[in-house]
Design goal:
16 helices, Transferase(Phosphotransferase), domain 1, 17 strands, three-stranded antiparallel β-sheet, alpha+beta, six-stranded antiparallel β-sheet, 495 residues, globular
Amino acid sequence: MTTTESSWQFIPSSLDDVEQIENYRTGGFHPVSIGDSFSRGRYRVLHKLGFGGFSTVWLARDEQSHRLVSLKIMTAEASNTCDEMRILQYLKDSAICHPACAHILCVLDHFTIDGPNGSHSCLVSPFAGPSLAQMTHTPGKPAGTRRLRGALARKFAKQVTLTIGYMHSRGVAHGDLTSSNILIQLAHVDSWSDHDVYERLGFPVTAKVRAWSGELNDKPCAPDYLVESANLSNLEYKWFTERVILVDFGQSFFLQTSSAQNVAITVPYFAPEVFFEEKASNLADIWALGCMIFEIRAGFQLFESFFNDPDDVIRQMVQTFGKLPEPWWSSWDRRNDYFDEDGKPKIYWPNDIPLSKEYPLVQLIRDIGSDDYQPVTDEVAVETHNVKSSDGTEPETKSMFESMGMRLSDTEVEVFEDLLHKVLRYNPEQRPQVQEIIEHSWFTICSEGCSTVMDPISTTASSQTKRRLSDGIAKGNVMVQTSESSCFTSGLPCV
């Protein structure tokens, strides 16, 4: 047996968008198959919605109400330690008709199941929609080429800000604010039949689970196959609302009990004090909110890390905002690999590869849209839905997305930079309260004149692209094995 085989129970899946298969173990994920029923047959699994480090999420049919629901099944370990249900119940009980309550996940039911990997908490909530991360995902294209319309981005950003402010006012921090945890609410989906689900989302794509030993009989902890998450982002415009829902409170905590255990695992959104002091707080939420607001408008992360590498994110922070304050600067072991003692980027490695460059925030904002490289006509058919105009004659084209080649106006660049510089302060105590953020003029800037049409093919690479090129990360095309992949059809009801 090879070293790889002795270290891992399962052969890696041929699918990309699936959970870590090795987490099907004692204390880990509960094995789920399409068609499984839970809570005495009440919830029947139709499709896969997503997954995280501590749960898998499934689209299910509530056989009592016949509505579609989201079924979140937590790992056995997280079920024993997570405060998610308690915090959601607290936020619900303490609700004071605040408008933010409409943007917090609503739990319809909860129960516990026992399986081969332990006891698992299950949360049932209304079927929402795709995450912002899924909506702006652009495989094969530069990040940011599929970004929300400016007015819609500001609307969503305001809703997220309002919700975080409400949570903080109730003494709760979210702890894991990312674009994967913000869902765009869908409309009229309760009327969907099973046939509609598969017609609009496609049949579940699966890949057989294989063990290095060749047999799964001795590994009942794993399902027979993994299921790829449904792609909700290509649904027609008519199914979307202009409202977002904040989900995944698995890393949330009461502010009075903050500790290092509250630190989430999504490195690109870490505040500097989280890196250096493992200090989670409402102020770390504010930093993540700033990163989130940038991402909602730009369509790509402010700080990226393909391998969740803290040093990679810290390097980008310094490139954008300058030298870290003490004692963080001196305690960062990798600083001399990238910068001199004044915080200025070193010009090159011994092999002449640039390791870091200065990329001020204003330049990143100004370059939003500069990676667009094809006319909007290539995208309209997929991303828009035609409806009759007000006089009932010509169709109007509506889209959630900004036209290719659109750039922020000088006015918005200036106002947006002002907002983010106020929010993304190294010193946590200098970050504004949420109320100050939400009153900023960027949220109410006029839609007209906030974007300008530029040449879709930029003559120079954007600073975001250049920053990626200086990462020193070799990127190539990954060959994906597909021979074990299939479109799941057996076991489904006749539709």
